[in-house]
Amino acid sequence: MSEEKSLNFLEEIIDADLKSGKYSQIVTRFPPEPNGYLHIGHATSIVLNFGLTKKFGGYTNLRFDDTNPVTEETEYVESIKADVRWLGFEWKNELYASDYFDTLYEYAIKLIKLGLAYVDDSSSEEIAAMKGTPTEPGTNSPNRDRSIEENLDLFQRMRAGEFPDGSRTLRAKIDMAHVNMLMRDPILYRIKHAPHHRTADKWCIYPMYDFAHGQSDSIENVTHSICTLEFVPHRELYNWLIEKLEIYPSRQYEFARRNLTYTVMSKRKLLQLVNEKHVSGWDDPRMPTISGMRRRGYTAAAIREFCDRVGIAKRDNIVDVGLLEFCVREDLNKIAQRRMVVFDPVKVVITNYELDEEMIHSENNPEDPNGGEREIPFSGEIYIEREDFMENPPKKYFRLAPGQMVRLKSAYIIKCEEVIKDEAGNITEIRCTYLPNSKSGNDTSGVHVKGTLHWVSVKHAITAELRIYDRLFRVEDPSSEEGDFKDYINPNSLQVIHGAFAEPSLKTAKFDESYQFIRKGYFVLDKDSGTSGIIFNKTVGLKDGWKPGS
RNA sequence: UGACCCAUGGUGUAAUGGUAACACUACUGAUUUUGGUUCAGUCAUUUAAGGUUCGAAUCCUUAUGGGUCAACCA
Asked: What is the CATH number of domain A260-337+464-540?
């Protein structure tokens, strides 16, 4: 914390602006369109915008960019607010571009009166045809030189609802030969007879992004309007409108959007995954959405840490999802209580164990001295992991094998004496003896074993469903592959284990609390848990340092 | 056959004309009642060619490579 970290390019700009006295405080905004759920890319923007004002002084608004009523819904507004809060940020003002529709309309009138905007009767196709291409200039619309009076009249009638959708637009009068396509008389307003989620039927004309975003920034006195690289060409128009309208000069700055390996990040693609049922919903734990990651068990602290570690810059990037997983493990290792769960059980009978049962004690978290202990019932019949036993083990196999000894976590050392199989040769039972004087915390046996296994007492075990997730796509960058990105979906991204055996304390597992299933990974209770049973989502596995055969 | 943005280990980000570094990954080893954690270490980097300079990742030129722009989406 006290360590001097170098500033990223935005921090340098802000630092200079503050030092020069250009601003006494900075104002940023997080401007989502309420037409989808937030994802890890948005988290980058949230952490950036809120982080900047926290660091340099000032505040951040949450502003919904709700200028397109046909795609936007209140459901999304609510999920976005919940996600931002969950990430740990609180906005100064909750605002909507639709709050400014009256002002924006006045701005349009002003532009018309300045002779800088006109009503165009051309169709969408005609406008596209007259637009030119990046290498060829466009041509002027036949309506480009209408009188100010006629434009005023027509625009007012557009607002009054006299014209059908698509019949007319309001366009800025700039330059149809401009090298920047966005400056070739961009559309400012279009007719949409559609109810808006907030203004209902008040309007039938709606401003376009370019005539709403910068103006909203300006109205809110946003000092640094931060967006992603694809808006670089918009900056010229952003500044042109501010200049002509003579309004508060917010400034736009762009950074490279965040990409992650083995997933897709565009809202369009994510929506497709949801609609076509490749995932169970926006909050499917395999989704890179905030809600998906939350359900998966990722913590807000881990996501914030990830964003900080990655940093920001202006070059295209694709961050290794392994870094995100590292941040998750790093956080969870400190806070997750340890529990024992056997995924694929095989029965072990301890032939010389004479008690009916006993309670043993185990620490909840070796990383947390104040984490306390819990009791776990132990008995002469336990389950261990089928993969923790091998009849013919390779060298350096520290687990159970004929004649070999292992420690049962927090309990005793056992030795494998006999293997029982069915007719088909499957192992049905492993017979062991235990060292009575090897009890954890009281070990006087003098025996040292290399391996420690997790286990669950047969008669005390409870069953649980486990949902194990793998990456959603088989390739690092599905969007850059040939063909449809959906061709690269990993068919095995969800594996369900139905009959796992868990220690009884997990019966009272709490939502939003992470557990480390010892030697297996981090898990969190899923919302589908209920009367039919408890269900856990695998958040992320433990780092696995064991390579068989070495 | 245009304009604009970008180019540093496998990945991400620093170095702001003065010894190319940090993190993740990978690999070694030590510790360990989780083959986890922790600790120690190793491998690995300036797209290319010119130029300016005592000195260039940094400034200039050109080339190459990647990205963006022709929605009544944002």
From this structure: 1.10.1160.10
